[in-house]
Amino acid sequence: MTTDPKLLEILVCPLTRTTLRYDRERQELLSRAAGLAYPIRNGMPIMLASEARALTDEERDGLKPRTAPG
Description:
The chain is of the alpha+beta class and about 70 residues long. It is built from two helices and five strands.
């Protein structure tokens, strides 16, 4: 089952109200601000902190906003 792309566009982290990044391979929504990865099960995002896993430092660093060069 696939997740509706329009749904992914409007979801925000329930703890920080910041945008999420979709990890298609792991089927997770990543919140850098909260340091959490919310699972997607059967096409449905599970937006509960108790169900999320903590991001590693490497994962958090990979989610840093990109700045314009120069």
